[in-house]
């Protein structure tokens, strides 16, 4: 049993894709154990993307994540981290397989609709960051 973090980024919320993305996650058999619509603050986003602090896109991606409402989801189930990662598709939507969220609904790396935790260690840190109040079982 694992829990992973999904963020529906501002573009996904703006395009009314909250339902479609959560529908796919639920259909897969994974459980929603945390769910909220929020305006992320800059400090949280910078901590979330701390591993990318030195990368050229760091400022832009932080601006983007704070530019509008996002949905934070905690998703639980067997192998949830890898299962979700595969469902979301490659970082660059042009390379994402059809059938994935990014492969079906996105075209640009600046607006690839979703974040998902890369591994169980990152997932635990990210759940703590976005759900400090805890998740619900
Ligand atoms: O989101 P994911 O884990 O697939 O990718 P990442 O390598 O951890 O990068 C985090 C986010 O930064 C991506 O989802 C993109 O939104 C953005 N990014 C970008 O704008 N340009 C890049 N060359 C790489 C990442
Ligand atoms: Mg990542």
How does this model look, in words?
The structure is a single chain. This protein has 137 residues and is α+β, with helices and mostly antiparallel strands. The protein has helices at 10-14, 18-27, 42-48, 58-65, 80-88, 101-105, 120-130; strands at residues 2-8, 31-38, 70-77, 114-116. The two termini are 12 Å apart. The longest helix is centred in the last third of the chain and has 11 residues, at 120-130. The chain contains seven helices and four strands. 40% of the residues lie in helices and 19% in strands. Bound molecules: cytidine-5'-diphosphate and magnesium ion. Cytidine-5'-diphosphate (CDP) is lined by residues 52, 57, 61, 91, 109-110, 112, 115, 118.
Index terms:
137 residues; alpha+beta; 4-stranded antiparallel β-sheet; 7 helices; binds cytidine-5'-diphosphate; binds magnesium ion
Query: What's the alpha carbon Rg, rounded to whole Å?
Result: 14 Å
Helical region count? 7
Structural class: alpha+beta
Helix content: 40-55%
What is the arithmetic mean of pLDDT? 98
For the largest sheet, list the strands in their spatial order: 2-3-1-4
Let me know the largest β-sheet: 4 strands, antiparallel
- The N- and C-terminal alpha carbons lie at a distance of 12 Å
Present as ligands are: cytidine-5'-diphosphate, magnesium ion
- Succession of helices and strands: EHHEHHEHHEH
Strand content: 15-25%
- How would the global form be characterised? globular
Low-confidence stretches: none
Q: Count the E strands.
A: 4
């Amino acid at each position: 049993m694992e829990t992973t973090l999904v963020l529906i980024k501002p573009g996904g919320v703006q395009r009314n894709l909250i339902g479609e993305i959560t529908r796919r996650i639920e259909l897969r058999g994974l459980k929603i154990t945390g769910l909220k619509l929020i305006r992320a603050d800059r400090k949280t986003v910078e901590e979330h993307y701390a591993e990318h602090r030195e990368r050229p896109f760091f400022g832009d991606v932080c601006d983007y994540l704070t530019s509008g409402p996002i949905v934070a989801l905690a998703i639980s189930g067997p192998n949830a981290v890898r299962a979700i990662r595969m469902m979301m598709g490659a970082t660059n939507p042009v390379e994402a397989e059809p059938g994935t969220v990014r492969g079906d609904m996105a075209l640009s790396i600046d607006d690839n609709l979703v974040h998902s935790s890369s591994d169980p260690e990152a997932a635990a840190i990210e759940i703590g960051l976005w759900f400090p109040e805890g998740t619900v079982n």
